[in-house]
């Protein structure tokens, strides 16, 4: 009889975007690359999900209804454990946002090529995540 080791936990990535095509596409591609994915349509929904289970990394759009990505990032940082979660903010119109006071780790201009996103996720994920 062999002893099977428990499955290694997959890093959890929270994708926040009000465009369902983006969340669905990123979720599918990231799951194919071994990540566990949670999605949200705006910052307030993402904040609720992060309060239930803190993700290992967040990819968030900047412009969304209810709560934008910059406000979500600030609120995430105030949660227990949220201060160290890497956050990638994305926007097709960076000139519309004041990112100077934001606590995100990386900004990517849309459209974001998946290969680049995957490289940045690997770079930003904490060791052991």
Can you describe what's shown?
The chain has one domain: 3-Layer(aba) Sandwich (Rossmann fold), CATH 3.40.50.2300. The protein is globular. It has 129 residues and is of the alpha/beta class. The protein is 34% helix and 19% strand. Mean pLDDT is 90; it is low at 1-7. The chain has helices at 20-32, 43-52, 69-78, 114-124; strands spanning 12-16, 36-40, 57-61, 87-91, 106-109. The protein contains four helices and five strands, in the order βαβαβαββα. The longest helix is centred in the N-terminal third of the chain and has 13 residues, at 20-32. It starts with 11 loop residues before the first strand and ends in a 5-residue tail after the last helix. Helix 2 (43-52) packs parallel to helix 3 (69-78). Strands 2-1-3-4-5 form a five-stranded parallel beta sheet, with helices on both faces. Helix 3 (69-78) links the parallel strand 3 and strand 4 (87-91).
The largest sheet, given as strand count, sense and whether it forms a barrel, is: 5 strands, parallel
User: Total strand count, please?
Assistant: 5
CATH superfamily: Response regulator
Structural classification: alpha/beta
List low-confidence stretches.
1-7
Query: Helicity level, as a percent range?
Result: 25-40%
- Give the overall shape: globular
Order of H and E elements: EHEHEHEEH
Which fold name is given in CATH as the topology?
Answer: Rossmann fold
InterPro entries: Bact_response_regulator (IPR050595), CheY-like_superfamily (IPR011006), Sig_transdc_resp-reg_receiver (IPR001789)
Keywords: Phosphoprotein
Protein name: Response regulator
Domain Response regulatory: 12-125
